[in-house]
Amino acid sequence: MSIIAESLGRIKPSPTIAVTTKAAELKAAGRDVIGLGAGEPDFDTPENIKAAAKTAIDEGKTKYTAVDGIPELKKAICAKFKRENGLDYEPSQVSVGSGGKQVIYNALIATLNPGDEVLIPTPYWVSYPDMVLLGGGEPKFVETTAENNFKMRPEDLEAAITPKTKWLIFNSPSNPSGAGYNREELKALTDVLVKHPHVWIMTDDMYEHLVYDDFEFVTPAQVEPSLYDRTLTMNGVSKAYSMTGWRIGYAAGPQELIKAMAKVQSQSTSNPCSVSQYASVEALNGPQEFLKERARVFQERRDLVVRMLNDAEGLSCPTPEGAFYVYPSCAGAIGKKAPSGKVIENDLDFVSELLESEGVAVVHGEAFGLSPHFRVSYATSTEALTEACTRIQKFCASLS
């Protein structure tokens, strides 16, 4: 009898972490590798936020806190939702976890019963399906296409809903495609959801502040207030404030759900890091002007990467509305032979040969549920991106 639980056989390790680890191993072995797999900004955490953390340490705020967040942070989160999204929440409706991933996991563990279906548009963040499976539910995928800019159509959502549907996980702007839904597009989806009162909505708004070309971010409960009582609106400080390692995510929703999530968290990690919570209070309450400047830099990087990838033979790269990823198609490379002699049969072969041949690490599209594509993170320097895209062009030109 194996010591390993059978439930772990339903899931797989994170492919994005695997790519980052492989790139690090090659670097350690002396290879010149450019990693475009990581999903974190290259900017440092702002000084005022770091100062708040140091102050918290100096003041001895290093003890246990309330299981799902200190009152000061919950108050700051409520103020953020009101200020930026026009949503009214009380602190009792707010949950704080060790990153957005834990918040989503808590919600799924607290609500899923065997046979419950969770709708997930493709391409999706790699962790969604596995967290659903660990919670005992069944992921059900709603396919999108590059022709629709990787956005779910209302008719596809309608067709996917069944009596077993419990949640829709909605991520805009998207990891991995960067696709963002404008108000009109989102309203068409919420119109469908209004007709199905048994379906709950879980939003992943982590890339809210990373939007480009005058795109206006909106979230479902903001667009359709009648969905407020069955929506969990999730966000965090990781991406916008360059605080990935601080591990603070948060969500707001109906009090009954928030209490259930706190119950789960009380028997797993208990409270998030106390110092990180005080730093996050400063992040949300402090100066916000730098967000637009960083978004401007990311937009310039996006434009560079899209242009250079579209100039690569066999690749086609749409221009996304937000986040810091692009999701090009490598369909034009399928069936060709790499310099190693291997025939590229799928996107995994493409990214593997790219890494071995040119030392550029990206993530294959199969990991995100939609092939033949690959994800490029442009959360790194312009110099590194230029060199990486030049290498990608060279690799594509070498295929025969």
From TrEMBL:
The record's section on InterPro entries has: Aminotransferase_I/II_large, AspAT/PAT-like, NHTrfase_class1_PyrdxlP-BS, PyrdxlP-dep_Trfase, PyrdxlP-dep_Trfase_major, PyrdxlP-dep_Trfase_small
- Cofactor(s) the protein requires to work: pyridoxal 5'-phosphate
Q: Does the keyword Transferase apply?
A: yes
Respond yes or no to whether keyword Transferase is given for this record: yes
* Reactions catalysed: L-aspartate + 2-oxoglutarate = oxaloacetate + L-glutamate
**Top enzyme class of this protein?**
transferase
Q: Which residues form the Aminotransferase class I/classII large domain?
A: 32-392
* GO molecular function per UniProt: transaminase activity
Which Gene3D superfamilies does the record associate with it?
Aspartate Aminotransferase, domain 1, Type I PLP-dependent aspartate aminotransferase-like (Major domain)
Entry keyword set: Aminotransferase, Pyridoxal phosphate, Transferase
E.C. no? 2.6.1.-
Alphabetized PANTHER family for the sequence = ASPARTATE AMINOTRANSFERASE (PTHR46383:SF1)
The family line of this record is: Belongs to the class-I pyridoxal-phosphate-dependent aminotransferase family.
The name under which this protein is listed is: Aminotransferase
Taxonomic source organism: Sneathiella chinensis
